[in-house]
Structures are given as structure tokens and as C-alpha cells.
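Notebook entry, structure prediction.
Reason for the run: the old model in the group folder had no record of what sequence produced it. Starting over properly, with the input documented here first.
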Amino acid sequence: MSPRAKSFGRALGRRARRYILTAEKLTVGVTDFGAAITDIIVPGRDGKPVNAVLGYDDASGYEKGTSSLGATVGRYAGRIGGARFTLEGREYLLEKNDGENHLHGSFGKRFFKAERIENGVRFTLLSPDTDEGFPGELRLFVTYEAEGGTLRVTYEAETDRDTVLNITNHSYFNLSGEGNCADHVLTVFADGTAEVGNGLIPTGRLLPVHGTPLDFTAPRRLKETIEDAELSATRGLDHSFIVRGEPGTLRSAARLTSPKTGVSLLCRTTQPTVHVYTAGFLDMDAAQRLRGGAKAEKNGGVCLETQHLPDSPNRPEFPSVLLKAGERFREVTEYVFGTEG
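New structure, fully documented this time:
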């Protein structure tokens, strides 16, 4: 069934639209501003609906907000150290938007062209050559499809010059629908993490997680970690985990559950890593208020950002983020919702 389109206020002086995807076990809202997920409504164990992602009331919140709620982020999701990299012998200087580093880019603050398809929406964005310093004219496609209890996100792209690319979705999941996520239980299907130094830039070392505060190889309540003194600088998790299995194959990356509502989320991806961010700085969001006037709260959500490692353009030992002219970029992430208990 083709999704319904509704007005979603204004951003950047333009009218925004929200598209409602309806499936058997979930209802999803996505907007053409930032190709963002605005709502994922699923039943809890008592049958009552739970909106499992944080959001704003309309597009103006997404314009003002500084936390990338639900947005498609790029050209490079994550940080690039020194806001520079070298490709084929040429150095490229990027916008410094995170101290001395480049973080995420501005795709989440742009309008995408929307095309309604069966059970979903396909968004398209044209990013010109030298956009924020990146080489190549890039055409990006983000497709959302809802079926049963699954939201499937497919990222595709092509470029006319060799470039680097790292795309993800930045939804903040709160499976209780309110409050903070300290009681949520997280499993990450990963045995290693990327060590980071100043500015959260990877050192190049990959470390085992077993026996550390980052050990989520078995289900673990977030409260045990987000209050750990070792993670005080990031106010909780803001770490990249190396997903088990072969990149390019769809496999489990993380599982999150809420004891309060019984809502569960299994995140599956073809990407090599999942970056877990427990919203330690969400209380500093410039929009101040979220959907329904709710206060933006520290640790109020959990981001499961399926992507490549930060600073990969400067780390030849990491999996490559090179997209060559004439090649087709394609990655898939699925969010599978259910209930337990």
C-alpha cells in the first residue's frame, strides 16, 4: 500500500511533508526534511501503542535541533580527524563542525525528493562536487519500507568522481516511549571496539570488549555502563563496535529491549560496525523540547548507527569507505520490532 502524505510544518522556508507507512505490526513516519524517521509506533506487551523513537512535533524542530534526531547523516557519518583526508594523493579540507574535526555532515538539514512506492518511500538527494569539501557529485537514495514488524532501510549512491562515503540513520530509540533508557537491556553482537583518543578520533587500535564496561556480548542493563567512571567523558556510550560476521551480509548487530513495555528491537545490517550512542548530551539539544513538549533528557535514547568506523579515510587499516566513479554503493539496515515478557 502506498503511504499517505501529510503536511509537517516548515523548515528552511519550505513546506515539509511526512509520509506514513503502515504495516501489520508497526506504523512509521518519515519526512522529506533530512530523510528522517519521525515516528515508529509499535504495540507494547499490554497492547498499548509505544512510539519507539524520539522526535519533534514538526519540521521546524528538526531544523533547529542539534542532535540529528532520526536523520540520514552524511556524507560521512561519524568523525573525520582534523577535518581533512587524502585521496589519490590529493588532500581535501572539510568543514570543521566538531571542534577541529568533521562530524556527520549536513544531509540531515536538507530536503530530499520523495517518491512513494509500494509499502514505502524512496528519498533522493543530489550533493554537488566539493559539497562541504568532499569530491564528486553524489546522488544518494534512501528507501524506507515497512512490512510486518520490520522497517527496512536501503542506502544506495553513485558518484562521478572517486570519493568517500559513510551513511547511516541517527534515530534515538526509546522503547519505553518516555523517560531515560537506563533500564533498557542491550546486546551487541561484537567482540571488538575501536579505541579512541582526543576528540573521539580512533587511534587505529581495535580492542576486545570482554571484561570491560563495553562488554555487551550478553544482555546487559544500560545503567551498569552509562554511569561507569571510565565513560564519564562521553556521559555514557559513544563507541563503535565491530559487528561479527562478513560485512556485506545482513546479520544481527544489536538487540535492545525495554523491561517496562516489553518492546524489543533487533537491528540487522550489512555494514561492518554499529556505533552505539546513549544520548549523553541530548539534554543540550538546541530545540530544547521534543515531541509533545517533552524535555530533551540525558540518556533519553539509544542510537544504533550502522556504518563504517570513524576516521576511516585516514586509516588504511580500516575497511575502505572509497566509492569509485561508476560504482554503486548499497547498504541495508533492518529494524525488527517485537514484544517479550
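Summary: The CA atoms of residues 12 and 31 lie 14 Å apart.
The old model has been moved to the deprecated folder.
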